[in-house]
Design brief:
two-stranded antiparallel sheet; four-stranded antiparallel sheet; 11 helices; 6 strands; single chain; alpha+beta
Amino acid sequence: MSQDQEYVILANRVAALEQRVAEMAGYLRSALGYLSTDPQSSLTKSRVTLEKLLIILFRQTMQSEPRRPMIGDMLADKGFVAMIPRRIIARMNAVREMSNLGPHGGDVDLTDAVRVMRDLLDVLEWYAINYDPSTGAVGAQEPRDSVEILPRLKEKYPTYLRPGITSVKFAQSKDRCYLETTTADLIASYLHNETTRREDLAFIGSGSSSDELLFDPMRSVVENAHKFVSEMDEISIINCTDLFPPDIAAKIDEVFRANERLPK
């Protein structure tokens, strides 16, 4: 993956989070903005973001103020840490250790800042899913995050997509991943009706094990959206979705069965 592609993915993840972590959004944007121009400053902003998150999380889970509102002290509190999944604690510690190099003038580069940014976003996405108060009244199956993928699908399949599709979003809730497709119909030359269909993607397995999901709701919605566009080929699309019209789907299937390859 190129640096530009990596930056776009990180920027999309930041954009999806900003409103849900408003208290930290400014520092998060700064960490992203400094990535390529000043990795040390990016690491420093990532560290501040994590520190502010931990203070908020400590108050929510422990119903008290941290004795010392410092990252190391809060992560040393056994009662507090016990309430957080180990994989999230591991990412928090990784951010803390690497980002300490920023303010102390350590030798860091873009790859260090990007790695920290990835871990930080994993932590923030976990927090948003589990502690964001704005989603407390939302049903467990209602998607909380979505990413528009129609432009990328048009780039990959410029002549295959079904006419009338105006939006294709990868959406997910805490425990489900969906494909949301919106189509438009023009009626009597002046009515513009739109229909959105949401399809649960839990039936799509990964690898040889049918129990392993290709799209895991524990991953970020941006990562799953990228996986959908990059890993779902034409055969996967026609077998799992109705994004292509029937005649094109039939042609793809015919060529594949005859030649064991996809049509050019």
